[in-house]
């Protein structure tokens, strides 16, 4: 009731005075620290993001929805630089309190091919540490964002590509592509935060099957198991469907929505926050195993030979 009352005001710029009162009342009610609360207060302060060639952010002034487009040709391989650009874009979106974000790709047939294999093959420890830490940052920011998120999956989304999509709250995918977490097929143990996103998307049983088998699903099969929410014939339609999903929140208190999302995801976020170093160590030691390195090298060759 209290939240709903305030919600109508949050569709306009909150004056400092309003914000102070709001902060006081809600932090008393929900026993939160002021800083935590401010981070979760909705508002509408739209912006135009400084351009980064790797990630384009386009905010619709009317709806307040941002379309975040990964732009690293040919396949949006997730490199340190792409993760850095995504991390920065997510900060900008959070600081400017947009009303929702849609993640998509500028590559015509690939959403993202997952982690850039060049980051994983014969890695330099210092760079890999920065890479892995930024990867963790991106997940924490995307999975834990105060604004609602959706993925318009306009192409293949294996491994890390699927992972980005399932860190969002809603997924619309175009037909005839593949999506899934094929890590075990590459000899990799899925990290803690990947498992959390998967369990949050499909049933525990499907998550177990999908992760242990490393299955890549067709768009149609992904819909059957709930890995995606809808199919749209092409990218523009996929973005439209994501916008429709996000527009539903116009009738929901954004404070209540964001706190509810946070409370549902809090345990997963804290789990990683509490073991970031350990998570890195586990993957580093897995990664530098000679057998894993050989598997990655062979795999890269097989992709090039196609
Ligand atoms: C193997 C990892 C081992 C250990 C990691 C350890 C710990 C990490 C654990 C978990 C972290 C979370 C998990 C993430 C794991 C990953 O994300 S690993 C990456 C897995 N990705 C894939 O298996 C997808 C590989 N790519 C494809 O299947 C196809 O490229 C795709 C279907 C996406 C597109 O097909 P198509 O349009 O035909 O394009 P091409 O295959 O011709 O590719 C174009 C060029 O791009 C290069 N390329 C493709 N994928 C990657 C990639 N992931 N990284 C770097 N480069 C890639 C490909 O070689 C072609 O290059 P070329 O033009 O020939 O030079």
TrEMBL record:
Coiled coil spans: none
Superkingdom classification of source: Eukaryota
Cell location: Mitochondrion matrix
Predominant place of localization: mitochondrion
Gene Ontology MF term list: delta(3)-delta(2)-enoyl-CoA isomerase activity
Entry protein name: Enoyl-CoA delta isomerase 1, mitochondrial
Gene behind this protein: Eci1_0
Role according to the record: Key enzyme of fatty acid beta-oxidation. Able to isomerize both 3-cis (3Z) and 3-trans (3E) double bonds into the 2-trans (2E) form in a range of enoyl-CoA species, with a preference for (3Z)-enoyl-CoAs over (3E)-enoyl-CoAs. The catalytic efficiency of this enzyme is not affected by the fatty acyl chain length.
A Pfam cross-reference name: ECH_1
Organism expressing this protein natively: Pseudolycoriella hygida
Pathway membership: Lipid metabolism; fatty acid beta-oxidation
